[in-house]
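Sequence, please.
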């Protein structure tokens, strides 16, 4: 799990990068929670999702957004952080030029940035979004959503109700050739305190299913 530093749009970016053990492995980018509320790449769920992909043979990276840890720059309301994520994905692709596809996973603010990123990058074929706060961030850009994925929310989330996020994500149901799942974990709060294992099992099960099966067509489920 070596530390890497690479040039970003607003100075250097600090990251952790795990190389794949095989040639032509897919790549995954993991995005952490809000920088202004203590979010870093060492957040527990960000760390666990990073290793979830690594165990499945991905070349995977997590990094600190600008202004966090050793990453230079200052918080930029999500737009600069989106540029950071795009640059990190570029770096991953440079290190893995034969990667067949990419995934993105994000927690809270990271889910917001990740879902913006996949709108711009057709190589991203799957996503895992945890605690996507539809009351704090505008997800109207998801029209149409070009990738299949899962959105996971806690039923006891006091930052954003699961019903609101579900309603927002349901608007993507008319997009052809894509399958977006919305699932909840009973009793879990925004940070999945005491529910981390349930969250990771749900995310892992979804990832395994997607890796074993071809993409499916249009469907929104809950």
């Amino acid at each position: 799990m070596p530390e890497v530093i690479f040039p970003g749009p607003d100075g250097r970016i600090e990251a952790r990068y795990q190389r794949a053990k095989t040639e032509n492995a897919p790549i995954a980018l993991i995005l952490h929670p809000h920088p202004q509320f203590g979010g870093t790449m060492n957040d527990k769920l960000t760390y666990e999702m990073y290793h979830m992909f690594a165990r499945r043979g991905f070349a995977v990276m997590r990094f600190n957004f600008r202004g966090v840890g050793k990453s230079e720059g200052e918080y930029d309301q999500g737009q600069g952080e989106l540029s950071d994520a795009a640059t990190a994905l570029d770096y991953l692709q440079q290190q893995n030029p034969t990667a067949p596809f990419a995934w993105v996973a994000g927690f809270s603010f990271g889910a917001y940035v990740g879902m913006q990123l996949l709108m711009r990058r057709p190589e991203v074929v799957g996503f895992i979004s945890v605690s996507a706060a539809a009351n704090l961030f505008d997800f109207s850009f998801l029209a149409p959503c070009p990738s299949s994925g899962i959105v996971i929310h806690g039923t006891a989330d006091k930052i954003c109700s699961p019903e609101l996020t579900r309603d927002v994500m349901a608007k993507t149901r008319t997009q052809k050739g894509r399958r977006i799942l919305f699932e909840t974990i009973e009793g879990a709060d925004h940070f999945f305190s005491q529910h981390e294992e349930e969250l990771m099992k749900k995310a892992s099960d979804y990832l395994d299913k997607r890796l074993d099966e071809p993409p499916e067509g249009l469907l929104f489920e809950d």
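Residues 24 and 135 are 39 Å apart (CA to CA).
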